[in-house]
Prior knowledge:
By secondary structure, the protein is an alpha+beta fold. The protein contains nine helices and four strands, in the order H-H-H-E-E-H-H-H-H-E-E-H-H. It has a four-stranded antiparallel beta sheet, with no helix packed on it.
Amino acid sequence: MRIMSHYRKLPSKVWVRQSLSIVCLLFLYGHANAEILTLENALKRAEENAPTLKANYAQIEGAENNVLASGILPNPKLFVGLDNYPVSGDSAWSVTQEGMTMQKIGVMQDFPNKAKRKAEVELAQAELGVANSQTQILRIDLRQQVATAWFKRFYLEQKLALIDKLLAENGLLGKLTQTQIISGQSLIADAMTPKQEYTVLLDQKDDLSRDLTKAKLELHRLVSANPLENSSQIETLPTQAPNLQVDTAQLYHHLHQHPELKAFQAQKQVTESKLKQAQALQKPDWGIEVAYQHRAPEFGDMIGVQLTTEIPVFSRKRSSPLIQAALAEQNRVTADQEAKYREHLSMLDDGLADIEALNQQIKRATQMSIPYAMQKERLQLASYQAGKAKLTDVIATRQALLEQRMRLIDLQQQQSMITAQLYFNFVEPTQNHTEE
């Protein structure tokens, strides 16, 4: 029995060691293979999975097929009939006694005028151009959304890390307070002050954790093929934010090449094609008819050929309003293009002004506000240790330092988001542009 007992214990120890080894290997493997969701990766994933882009690709495919179908002649018509069928006289109700009675079969083909067919092709091509121009616009909007969500999550994680650091410092402050109480330099009631600060920090951490969860889900919905899958697959972000460069001189120089402004050129092509279609209504269409006519055996068979054309009696009444409508649409597109240009110009002015102000505020925060707050905290803590200051003063300076650090993160977040908006809206879409 002792031998069996010993035999059972030995594999148990081996199993524990093996299990620990496996757990360690899995842990190391998981960390080694944990995916880092850089901004570049997030943008790439979002473009691969965005339903808006997929819908646009389907729209482009449909527009391409419309181009292939445009300008095609209408289907020919097959007809059968009976001409000159007698209904009175000696040959009444007979198809063989009257020489003019003919059974016929033939085909008809309508030919819309050349200008109309050409305008139809140009309209289909212009609508394809509009669909293609929407791709860049949707891509810009998507990349801005992803960048905003990415930076929002990144800086929330920075804030949480700061709170965790302060929570750790709070524990040291609690120990220092206990020492001061024991030495008689602090009141017993001061023992509760670090605990009160601790609860305040926990409340702030809960708020940040809530916001971070929302930010993770928001980013996950943008980059994932299946928004319902486990969001933990994209939880890791890099420790450094990307540095997007914005050349202010080039922004204004290439503003007219922005995809949203160039899209109006495609819309103008549509209106011009509609104008040509309306003008083509003033030109007549024509058609041809060929028939084989069969008569009684004693009479010969015949072939008939007939040409048809429209008489443009009402074409002007129909086309003139359409022409005026197309001209009005052209004026509308031109005005919208000018309005959009001014809107982009205003966005550039506002964005660059915001960045300039944020740069100055961040510089003051890093060089003045935070160093001053840190120095004041150290002095207050030293005064408290010397029994010359109250613990509440130390807590107040710690809270002031926290506010300054949080404000710096907020400023950096605003700077990153505005820079990303300018970069993805104005720099990236025109950076490969060469002047025509």
